[in-house]
Amino acid sequence: MMNINKMVLAYSGGLDTSVIIKWAMEWLKCEVIAVTCDLGQNEDAEAICRKALKTGASKAYVRKIADEFLKDFCLPALQAHAIYENKYLLATALGRPLIAKHLVEIAQAEGADAIAHGSTGKGNDQVRFDVSVMALDSRLKIVAPVRSWHFKSRNEEIEFAMKHNIPVEATKEKPYSIDRNIWGISIECGILEDPWQEPPDDIYQITSSIAKAPDQPEYVEIDFEDGVPVALNGDRLSLLQLVERLNAIGGRHGVGRVDLVENRLVGIKSREIYEAPAATILHLAHSELERLVLDRETQHFKQILSQRYSELIYNGWWFSPLRKALDAFFGQIQKVVTGKTRIKLHKGQAVIVGRQSACSLYDYKLATYDKEDVFDHLAGEAFCKLWGLPLQVVGAKQKGSM
Length: 402
Ligand code: ARG
What we know:
This protein is α/β, with parallel strands linked by helices. It has three domains: 6-73 and 90-174, Rossmann fold, CATH 3.40.50; 180-356, Alpha-Beta Complex (Argininosuccinate synthetase, chain A, domain 2), CATH 3.90.1260.10; 367-398, no CATH class. Helix content is 44%, strand content 20%. A five-stranded parallel β-sheet has the order 3-2-1-4-5, sandwiched between helices. Strands 10-9-8-13-14 form a five-stranded antiparallel β-sheet, with helices on one face. A four-stranded antiparallel β-sheet has the order 6-7-12-11. It binds arginine. Residues 92-93, 124-125, 177-179, 186-188, 272 line the site of arginine (ARG).
């Protein structure tokens, strides 16, 4: 048994983390400080806080950090085009290191000697919490009771909760595990564990089905300055306002649903459903603007780094020197990502229909096939001669004519 005096717990208000409070008091004989982080998941954090105190926490903090989340975590991921396995926009994965950062800060201020979280032993989130805490304060112990405690089923947990007067909301088991923040929603378990089954429509939290989405398309215009989205349809907005509005508009049109069988870091495949309307639209808008303003080599080189960056985030290495170094690369090229994109939303789709920028490298006179054309067509002949020369040599060699 670990020797712990005071631990700081990432508290969600759910059954697991509520049971952890009492479990730690009973088994570890330690004081528990509960921390509820509001990353824009639309919950009553104050009420959750009160529940923590009622359950036995000696103190309960609420951290409202949706702004910080967007600015310091989602924005770099957007500028990096970080998309895990080409589909997942990483909302859950980006939230964990931020929550860990706040837990560590509070632990240091409170003189606590341990951090606790409610993640299981077979998921990615335990990795992200553990590794982030290890990186930020190597002296802190890490407790993840769900990995090790003696409860064998949810019912045993519920029994323990009832015995200790922990309010248990629904006695009927909720079939899904849902993680939500302003950047997106992750949904798994229940029938979704059969990868052949179509997700039932009632799992979706913020997007409408294609059938119920409006018949008329809707256009949005997004302005970027130095790679940062700053305005929507001409209204200058904070990042938080802009993402909230895009979630509402995109959600209405059923944009941003993803059904993914993914590779977890711990070695298993799992099936997850995601909803991320705003993030989907912003990724499209940002990457389409970059196509207009980046030179070819930088644009192509970036793609390689984007994939590595998405893996770093997914695998819990946010607080790593490599992530910071990659941010410097992505940051450097954002200087020209200033301009506007126009996106059409319709029946589950977001498509680019227009882009413009003062930094545009698109040159009409070079691109046109009309009479304004200034491209040196004759140079094309010499270019082809040299570009194809290595293949010409190989071909000749194979035919024996060389
Ligand atoms: N698979 C996603 C990830 O690893 C989400 C994990 C949490 N999912 C959930 N439904 N609670 O980032």
